[in-house]
Amino acid sequence: RRRRITERVITIPTTLGGFGLSLAYVATREFDPTPIFGQEPILIYGLGTLVCGLSGLLIGPILGSSLWKLFHHEEVKLMEQRDREFYEHIKKNRADPSLHTLRNPAPDYYGEKIKSVADYRKWLRKQREIDCAQTFRDKI
After folding, report:
1. Of all helices (H) and strands (E), which one includes residue 10?
2. Residue-level pLDDT at 84
3. Closest C-alpha among 135, 139, 140 to residue 99
4. Has residue 98 got a pLDDT over 80?
5. Residue 134 contacts residue 95 (beta carbons within 8 Å)
6. Residue 67 CB neighbours (<10 A)
7. Mean pLDDT along residues 120-135
8. Treating both helix axes as pointing N-terminal to C-terminal, what angle do 2-28 and 41-71 enclose, rounded to 10 degrees?
9. Using H for helix, E for strand and C for coil, what is the string for 75-134?
């Protein structure tokens, strides 16, 4: 939870920084009336400014996560160990992938949608239902 908060907090200055720096560049630039890519220069500069702001928005969580990992070594080790154990548990309990097709894919095969214990229990029930249904079909 603290890592996600750090990522979100760092996103604010990176977004504002990307937007602000590109806006400062555009503000100090002399406009040439010739079209750029067949469009008015002010439109292209405006789109470029928005792209820089969006780039800051995308870079923020990456930078925030990196900074959080830099200052929380022990927690990162414990989280990675817990993630490995959880992934092994997911591999052990998921439905047999050979029973699924493109038309009937395995639901949430890697457990990516699991965010809480309740989600995990739902995922586990769903995997068992699929295995039981397939076993029943195989017997018929």
Report:
1. helix 2-28
2. 92
3. 135
4. no
5. yes
6. 15
7. 80
8. 150
9. HHHHHHHHHHHHHHHHHHHCCCHHHCCCCCCCCCCCCCCCCCHHHHHHHHHHHHHHHHHH
pLDDT digits (tens, 9 = 90+) for 10-39: 999 999 999 999 999 888 888 777 787 888
User: For residue 35, what is the DSSP state?
Assistant: -
Model-level pTM?
0.58
10 Å CB burial of residue 132 (0-12, 13-18, 19+) is: exposed
Evaluate whether 46 touches 22 at the Cβ level (below 8 Å): no
- Which distant-in-sequence residues (6+ apart) come within 8 Å of 14 by Cβ? 56, 57, 59, 60, 63
In this prediction, residue 43 has a pLDDT band, given cuts at 50, 70 and 90, of confident
